[in-house]
């Protein structure tokens, strides 16, 4: 009989909690579950904060959160799952950054915490209480961690950078109105 240790149990709990929260947020975006806006409503919101096209942005972020969250909870394809979730949370943090750190004030604290937890799971691995372990880590090789995080970082930098330039341009066109100017478009 295999004996699991505290590390395995801790990683299981971290994966279930982080993955569950991410999957629920993705389900709001994709399906409108749990009071979410679905693709249509989320797409409109994405447009309003500078992510265009809105529906494509809603679909991409929804899939990264929902799919990444489910895969993290299962401990399957852990490097890719963690990287996808971290990329989505970086995009969310960019929207909340002008409000400071604390979530109470609309800041990026929550998105940063989820993104760092997802990254930590990708780096540490899922533990022995995971699908990756059960299938011999065929989707969780050491080289996959930097590859997945690197691809996600490059893609996220491109998307967030484009969005940030759009926000700055809108603020300049509106006479320095900041991010609020996006809501007037």
UniProtKB/TrEMBL annotation:
Chief location category: membrane
Pfam families reported for this sequence: DoxX
Membrane topology category: Multi-pass membrane protein
Highest taxon, organism lineage: Bacteria
Similarity comment: family membership: Belongs to the DoxX family.
Protein name: DoxX family membrane protein
Keywords: Cell membrane, Membrane, Transmembrane, Transmembrane helix
Species this chain originates from: Streptomyces cinereospinus
Signal peptide interval: none
UniProt key word Cell cycle: no
Xref: InterPro entries: DoxX, DoxX-like_oxidoreductase
């Amino acid at each position: 009989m295999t004996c699991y240790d505290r590390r395995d149990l801790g990683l299981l709990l971290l994966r279930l909690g982080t993955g569950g929260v991410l999957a629920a947020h993705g389900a709001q975006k994709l399906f409108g579950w749990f009071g979410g806006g679905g693709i249509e409503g989320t797409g409109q919101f994405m447009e309003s904060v500078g992510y265009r096209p809105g529906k494509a942005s809603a679909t991409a972020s929804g899939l990264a959160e929902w799919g990444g969250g489910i895969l993290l909870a299962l401990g399957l394809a852990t490097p890719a799952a963690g990287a996808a979730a971290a990329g989505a949370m970086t995009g969310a943090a960019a929207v909340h950054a002008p409000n400071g750190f604390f979530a109470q004030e609309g800041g990026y604290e929550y998105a940063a915490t989820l993104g760092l937890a997802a990254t930590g799971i990708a780096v540490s691995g899922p533990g022995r209480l995971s699908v990756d372990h059960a299938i011999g880590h065929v989707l969780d090789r050491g080289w996959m961690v930097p590859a997945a995080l690197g691809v996600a970082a490059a893609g996220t930098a491109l998307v967030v950078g484009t969005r940030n330039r759009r926000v700055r341009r809108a603020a300049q066109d509106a006479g320095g109105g900041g991010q609020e100017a996006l809501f007037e478009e």
